[in-house]
Design a protein that fits this description.
Layout: H1 2-6, H2 14-23, H3 40-56, E1 67-71, E2 78-79, E3 106-109, H4 135-144, H5 153-163, E4 167-171, H6 178-192, E5 206-209, H7 213-230, E6 234-237, H8 243-250, E7 258-261, H9 263-271, E8 282-286, H10 288-291, H11 297-306, E9 325-330, H12 337-341, E10 350-355, E11 366-371, H13 377-388, E12 399-403, H14 407-419, E13 425-427, H15 433-436, H16 439-444, E14 450-453, E15 466-471, H17 478-485, E16 498-503, H18 506-521, E17 534-536
Parallel strand pairs: 4-9, 4-10, 5-7, 5-8, 6-7, 8-9, 10-17, 11-16, 12-14, 12-15, 13-14, 15-16
Antiparallel strand pairs: 1-2, 1-3, 3-11
Helix pairs in contact: 4-7, 5-6, 6-7, 9-11
Amino acid sequence: MALLQRTPFFLLTPQLLLALRRNFAVPGSGEPLPVVRIPQALQRRQEQRQNGRQSALRPVLVRPGRLLISARRPELSQPARLTLGRWESAPLASRGWRNRRARGDYFSIERAQREVPALPNVASEGSFAELGLEPRVLRALQEAAPEVVRPTTVQLSTIPQLLRGRHILCAAETGSGKTLSYLLPLLQRLLVRPSLDSRRVPAPRGLVLVPSRELAQQVRAVAQPLGSSLGLQVRELGGGHGMRRIRLQLSKQPPADVLVATPGALWKALKSRLLILEQLSFLVLDEADTLLDESFLELAQYVLEKSNIAESPADLEDPLDPKAQLVLVGATLPGGMGQLLSKVTSLDSLTTITSSKLHCIMPHIKQTFMRLKGAEKVTELVQILKQHDRADRTGPSGTVLVFCNSSSTVNWLGYILDDHKIQHLRLQGQMPASMRVGIFQCFQKRSQDILLCTDIASRGLDSTRVELVVNYDFPLTLQDYIHRAGRVGRVGSEVPGTVISFVTHPWDVRLVQKIELAARRRRSLPGLESSVKEPLPYQT
């Protein structure tokens, strides 16, 4: 009776009331003690709340097996055999990460396969000879890149279309071989068309526009051996050195057949009439999503307007009236691209080719997300780098990319690693051009195994030796995350790739939850607009 008096009304559950009714009786009589009954609506609401708590804690993993999502709390893991429906909800491992109490939590998107999705399976394997490339081009490819034995899925779809004279908009996952997919048709077109070298002003016949000097160096390094075997001159035009350096680069003899340029340097050369585009037969915008964003849009639009873009494949056949074939490639497709291209060419002549894995979480890369306090990130990074540098590691080891969101963070973090005797290189956009030259090439050659960098190293740069990407600062957009994660697991990579991301801020958590939900549903990341017409077949 005392228990009943001390128990508040709102804590009396139906089970407790039933127990009181059975066990307590009025002394001297066989009648049970009268009890207060709760309303049926309140009882149903209480039962629903109880059932909701039980279902929320119900583990997703029913039987042991290979996991798609492995979480610190096992009940939040998801087996690889399970795929969530589009409208099906699930308890996310990152749910509640906006709360400070979640610090120290983590989860991983496990590696679902070992093969790179960009490579076709053996049954549908083709060869470069079957794509329509001339024997001279095939010999040049074999001499310049003997390790390239079979074309990737992107190359199988892109090269024949380019050889037919179509304008191409190609979007595929990073590391899928897009550079060779446009270089080989470009060089072959220049071989069959005579050069009209009657002007003193340099007039390249092929132009590859890239957003950074590092990427310009890389594309030139790939194109130059191919061009040398075919008797074609490949030159590079990079910014950051002033007009004197630009004049020096353009004055080299013989003149360039193919020019690899950055937007700023090319704009200065065109404005000063040091270069003309009247003989252009091939125009490539590499990393088009970056070239057509706010930072480069005006410059890219100026180059497109100065180029004589063909309206149809038939316009490319007149050798006395050169017109340019247009190629745009990238790992993501920005919205509004069609509106810009309609100003310079007919959209009916544009063929869009994209991979079915575009904007998706790559299934052959392990990706780990760690919820940390800002003050914990340095300690965690130092531990990861020292663990990676252990002498007792088995198997080949690759290099490490550490991404930061600002140049100041790169410099500050570099001083911290110096204090811990961890050797590294640094690459960020505020460095003078003389300091930036060759830094990424030294990293590729493994003069140092750790590179601290901003997103300047996330676009298009070849990184087949990279084993680990660490997002010290979580990227600001999902596009940036795709590009950073694409530095590992590329075609020709020597080691399997892993991405580790430090999650600190509430806006980081929002992006992480979008990534986790897309991985659980095996769907593309939300909010990445693209016009997709011809998806490439995905080979498993």
